[in-house]
Amino acid sequence: MYEILHDYLALFVVGSWPNGPLGGAAITLILSALGLLISFPISVLIGLAQVSPWRWMRRIAGIWTRLVRGVPLLMIIFWAYFAVPLLVGAEVSAFTTAVCAIIVYESAFLLQIVRAGLEGLPRGQMEAARSNGLSWLQSMRYVQLPQALANMLPSIVNQFVSIIKATSLAYVIGVPELTYSAAQVNTITLTKPLQTFLVLAAFYFVLCFAISRFAGWLERRIARQRAGMA
Amino acid sequence: MFDLSFLLEDGYLKLFRDGVLTTLRLFAVSGLLAIVVGVLLTTLRALPVKLFKGFVIVVVEYHRNVPVLVQILVWYFGVPQLLPEGARDWINAGNTEFFFATVALALNAGAFISEDLRSGLRAIPHTQQEAAWSIGLTYLQSLRYVILPQGIRVALPALLNQSLLLFKNSSLAMAIGVHELLYRTRQIDNLTFRTFDVFLVATILYLIGTLSLMALSEHFAKRRTAPSGV
Predict the structure, then answer these.
(1) What's the alpha-carbon Rg for chain A, to the nearest Å?
(2) Which of A85-94, A204-213, B16-25, B56-65 is the least confident region?
């Protein structure tokens, strides 16, 4: 394992020919960060639709979520990579495709967090806001969402772990992220597949374990703060 | 808009059927194995031995923090390297891809199932355990006849959710060349160039499986009865 790390660290982390200046780990992180940053606002919108007082909106949002959650991410990646470009009539890079597919898939899961955050608030809040003359959207914007966001934060950080893991599938369409770089190392060395893929697993483990620990710490801290406030 | 008549030519329907059957077989075999792994890990962790507890925690954290695809790659490319010549030949003579995909998926789902079972068991009041001991059952007997049956009932919706994940994750087996539904889908797409139609059929096939699992889990979540005495 040491030799693999020593000889191919460049491919895993720093990047080298033929993948460009960024290594697998960097691309994995960029892919994950873009996925989280873009899918969060989208999931807030769909989440709002799901708790909105308008029935047709709730229904459409519900059907959309079920469909997305019901299909394997790999299938969504293939739709985005092979089918959608035919429709749009334009060539889209594998990286962009992967980001889009991850956004579509993960927003359907982030949305669950948003919804739980909103539904966890005391009912009186909404009624108070409405009786103060705010519209439904205004009460959401000024009263509900800011409070829910604090509750959601640890779960969102946790979801980041699942987004990082999801990016590994981008390997299948040739995005040079961590998994892809390991596969490249494997084709170069050939005799040490176990070491190569264990190094890969270790990379993901360190990354995801640290983040989920951070989420746990955040959760305890928020709980303590709340207890102090009460 | 969609023209599915191509399905009737050249045995494409047969390829689809073959893919569905392989996906179902992968799901069933790894699912059953996962339950065994999950119960085993839960029991090991519940035993009052520190070493076992540590072992289970390491196993669960590995499967939680490393992408499933990477776990599959470790098994498929890495593990044969460890096996003695004879065992490797024996495995290679059979369906290697299917074998390692099953093992990887079963261990992954098993780790998650053990976590669900554990939180299910925690919902059972400790007095139950004491009552079981006081009527003369041993530790394992009390687990088997008193605690586990109740815990499983509490954990059922979560377990069904795991089965949904497992069903979707089975699509990752295509990365190592298992001829499951997604693999066959890409194959038919390559043969016919009818990307939209082919992907649509496959998506619907996946949705039939996942939506019924979702409906089942929602059904049990709704009518989940609290364990007696709570």
Answers:
(1) 21
(2) A85-94
pLDDT (0 to 100) of residue A19: 67
- If you measure CA to CA, which chain B residue comes closest to A203? B66
Number of neighbours of residue A171 by Cβ within 10 angstroms:
24
E strands of chain B, at which residues?
none
**Dist CA B139 CA A120 (whole Å):** 39
The tokens describing A76, both together, are 């969504």
Tokens of B162: 């795991």
The alpha-helical segments, DSSP class H, found in chain A are 2-9, 24-51, 55-69, 73-78, 84-88, 94-119, 123-131, 136-139, 145-167, 178-189, 193-229
Measured between beta carbons, the chain B residues lying within 8 angstroms of A208 are: 64-66
The model carries a pTM of 0.91
By CB neighbour count within 10 A (0-12 exposed, 13-18 middle, 19+ buried), where does A189 fall?
A: middle
| Class level of CATH domain B25-178 | mainly alpha
pLDDT tens track, chain A, 230 positions: 788 888 888 788 877 666 677 889 999 999 999 999 999 999 999 999 998 999 999 999 999 999 999 999 999 999 999 999 888 888 889 999 999 999 999 999 999 999 999 988 888 888 899 889 999 889 988 889 998 988 899 999 999 999 999 999 999 999 999 999 999 999 998 888 999 999 999 999 999 999 999 999 999 998 888 887 65
Minimum-distance CB partner of B70 among A172, A193, A200: A200
B160 touches chain A (CB under 8 A): no
Task: Write the pLDDT tens digit of every residue in B98-113.
Answer: 999 999 999 999 999 9
Q: How far is B228 from chain A (nearest CA, A)?
A: 27
How do the domains of chain B map onto residue ranges? 25-178
Binary contact (B74, A83; C-beta < 8 A):
no
Kindly list the structural domains of chain A, giving each domain's residue range(s) and its CATH number in brackets, ordered by start.
Answer: 1-227 (1.10.3720.10)
Cα–Cα distance for residue pair B118/B198, rounded to 1 Å: 41
Does B171 contact A at CB distance below 8 Å? Answer: yes
Task: Copy the structure tokens of residue A7.
Answer: 């000889």
Q: Which residues of chain A are at the B interface, by a Cβ-Cβ cutoff of 8 Å?
A: 66-67, 69-75, 78-79, 82-83, 86-87, 161, 164-166, 168-169, 171-172, 179, 182-183, 186, 192-198, 200-201, 204-205, 207-209, 212
Q: Which residues of A touch B169 (CB under 8 A)?
A: 72
